[in-house]
Amino acid sequence: MTDIEPLPLSDQISGAPHPSEALEIFGQDSAQQQFLEAFDRGRLHHAWLLSGPRGIGKA
């Protein structure tokens, strides 16, 4: 029998809202515009690579 390991907790910074709870996007105007243009054209990529320092909201 194999033990099922629990999922790791997110590395949310204390006091910062989880990205799923944030109502606005800050500092990502260019990326947001590119995403919305692709969505409007019906040409979304199958994946988006999100990178950046801890706590920036990549979840």
The mean pLDDT is 82
Backbone structural class: mainly alpha
As a percent range, the share of helical residues equals 10-25%
What distance lies between the first and last C-alpha atoms, to the nearest angstrom? Answer: 33 Å
How large is the radius of gyration? 16 Å
- Secondary-structure element string: H
Strand content: under 5%
Instruction: Tell me the major beta sheet.
Output: none
Low-pLDDT runs of 5+ residues are: none
Overall geometry: flat
- What is the number of strand segments? 0
Number of helices: 1
List the helices and strands and how they pair.
Blueprint: H1 29-41
Describe this structure in words.
This protein is an all-alpha fold and 59 residues long. Helix content is 22%, strand content 0%. It is built from one helix and no strands. The termini are far apart. The model has no long low-confidence stretch (mean pLDDT 82).
In short:
This protein is 22% helix and 0% strand.
Sum up the structure in keywords.
22% helix, mainly alpha, 59 residues, 1 helix
